[in-house]
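Forwarding the complex inputs:
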Amino acid sequence: MTAETEAMIDVAATHRPRDLTGARAAVLAARDDDANILVRGAGTKLSWAGRPTTGRAWHVIDTRELNLLVSHDAGDMTATVQAGIALHDLQAELGRAGQEFGCDPPGTAGRSTVGGVFVANDGGPRRLRYGGVRDHVIGTTVVLADGTVARSGGDVIKNVAGYDLGKLWCGSLGTLGLVVELTLRLHPVPEATRAVRVPASAPVAAAVVRDLLASPVECSAMEWASVGRGALLLVLEGPARGLDTQVDAMIAIVRRHGAEAEPVDGASDQLDTWRQAHSAEAPATRARATSLPTDLATIAEALTAAVEGTPVEASLYSHAGLGLHDAVLTGGDTRDHAVVVNRWRDAVTRTGGHVVLRERPAELDDHVDPWGDPPPARYLDLMRSVKTALDPHGRFSPGRFVGGI
Amino acid sequence: MEKLAIVSEALRLELHDVLGPAGLLTEWAQRRTYESDGLTGYRAVPAFVALPENRDQVVGVVRACARHGVPLVPRGSGTGLSGGALPHPDGVLIALSRMRRVLDIDAANQRITVEPGVTNAQVSKAVAGYDLYYAPDPSSQVVCSIGGNVAENSGGAHCLKYGFTTHHVLGCEVVLPDGEVVELGGPTLDPLGYDLRGLFVGSEGTLGIVTKVTLRLLRRPEAVRTMVADFATPAAAGDAVGAIIAAGIVPAAVEMMDNLAIQAAEDDAHAGFDRDSGAALIVELDGPAAECEASFADVVGLCTDNGATAIRIADDPAERARVWKGRKAAFAAMGRLAPDYFVQDGVIPRTRLGECLDQISQMAAAAGLRVANVFHAGDGNLHPLVLYDGADAEVTERAETLSKQIAELCVAFGGSLSGEHGIGADKACSMPTMFTADDLAVMDRVRAAFDPEGRCNPDKVLPTPRLCGERPGPYKPHPLEAAGIIERM
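Prediction (whole assembly, two chains):
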């Protein structure tokens, strides 16, 4: 747990369940103590989300001993895991069968857990091809605050029976229940990976991305970073035999925009470097913006404008084909970071997107709301109804979610 | 009765104010045309049929229903196969078929916004000029509506590679059961808050009425290659599918028909399938041309290695269309084999195909009925067609029982009651074979968060004592409960 989050709550007990029975017992212990519950995996995202509500004591449920690969059905391309298994360990195991969980958030070399990535709705560059973590989880087992064990979905990829509650848990940041087990759909590990680097300002990059999306070239990742004058990393994956033709087609499109494509050695390692740039450590601040893919230049220019007159330095790392952007702010103090976040947020909101804070110094929240303005009243009301239906006494991480949920 | 009549007249006046005379059907003969959806075995004539033309009219109708405590049932094109749009006899059926405008096309960002009555095929047609298309392709795509697709989380033949409706819906405008309007999701990824859009897709009309949908579009693949391979048995064809998957190839579609289905389809569509084949496997690959060619050669080799008796490659678009016409005609063609059929939609782990088909064939023999099999072989989604003659009540009942047993067999194999048709009215009482009472109670809590009065498409999806008896379906312990890991609360 990060020191900041730990300092904010009064931890009365810590549980390290190893199975569903233990997980349920931990939740019931918190209920019997009338305590709140903070669920943590590796703790890599504890600085995301809002400040926990004070008042009650807290029980921490540490999922890292829920670390089994329960089953891997290679022929069906599915696997069932306990939520606390490290993503890195899971990928190593699946890799032996030539398969992978198609989710590549930054920090996988660390101990990020599959459950943590899921409830944080985290992802990486290859989301462009494989979809978000929400799209990979086909079944879930969750313990609710009253100890009810609820399964939804199932073990097969195609399944529409009952409500798809997995979508609710994904991105809920531990505010609805304790995810104990997940069933995942898997993908084959691509035979080969190729990448080119394209020095390109944001407007040129936006134009290249737009043309690539409209072309038959199927990129696995399109990353843009503001380093230097800006650069794109374009990644292709697939059977080795077909890949050269695609690379050539991609380079031809890049050149139409007067840009140069530089082939990259060690494409997978390069991609990993670009992926890791999407994370930050305090005292840096990471702000995540969403936009339409074509708004890349607007988002980048707004960030440049937002730091003007402040001592803050900002770098932008974009999943350009997806319209997801991470601004990493360094230098200055938390007030300066707040100024930049507010300015950038205003501009991003005008394009129809939004900005939320991820890793950041805890004191930043004295000056700016990590979630921004509350969503429309009826929508917030509906989210509160869902929260109340599942966690009527507000035990799971109260205060941490949108609108103070 | 008298009280109901008073409510009914007051409601009629309010609905008339909202919809005008052309938007409200009150005559029995008119209402009766809406008595069922694609699952015609279930029928109920609704008290009123509302035909709104815009969101405000939907809001007006839903508010009127809320004021009078009257149930409402949304309906798209009425092609659903699980009775999801079965009307409530005391309720208002809200048919969205007049809301069929394409509102916005953002080709650069590969998004389209449409009203719910737009058909699935119209979406792809509207963006064909940009080389874009909408991936989910249920067999009824020419008729079925996007609103219905959202409600049912519809699939199709190509979801092995491209996923289901839920992977392609970015945002929904929804009229909640109290008449309030909310936007769930939106044009950008990862909207703020809980993913209520993800929850809403596939909720079968029980959480609200969708009045606007923003969909993700895909670039049309550069190349498409299609082949039909014949095998001695479906199990042998299943082995070939296993080999394709094991080679790391993800085809766009893998479909299978058994001999009975081939015969019916061939009589109807003359698509060139071999009538003597034990199983026909259709494999389609798409993507960048070079990649597609390389993988296609591999697939042909893998089918040959796994005992294909013949391979026919559909080389041009006309030939490919003929193959698909044959496959998609399979359901309709059953009329040539028997006056009536029940179609199931269960899913099994693909690797257990052979075993499962053996059991289905034994169960059919025991019931003295014929079952034709058409299915999405890549993802284990079966569509067994139980053939019968509806003129004979005893045979009908036997066929219905067999059909239900097949769906529940899929659950016993570790699969699902439904891969794409939905639970609706048809399979609600089978839900306890797949989920525990606790699982279902939690779903019901979520439902109540949207619809505390339980008026939105009641008696669908989740079993109720009224619907299924006091103990809905045979109780089966949760696997975790059987293992002594959990207890019943």
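The CA atoms of residues 10 and 68 of chain B lie 9 Å apart.
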